[in-house]
Amino acid sequence: MNEEQLPARVVNCPYCGARFSMLVDPSQGSHESWEDCPQCCAPIHFKVAVSALTGEIESLVVGADDDVI
């Protein structure tokens, strides 16, 4: 999927509270990933739920690296 076609979501860093936009690739299905905050560089845990029927993003949960989400 081209980067221009990926849906963007605005999230808040669980460490510093910075708001930033991230691209989410629903073609990967439901998955978890870790990315660094662009402001404070702390590792953020992302959990993406994608509908198996529609391929749409159902939810995006954001947590600290050691949070159980």
UniProtKB/TrEMBL annotation:
Pfam families xrefs: Zn_ribbon_21
Domain of life: Bacteria
Organism expressing this protein natively: Halomonas cupida
InterPro entries: zinc_ribbon_bacterial
Protein name: Cysteine-rich CPXCG
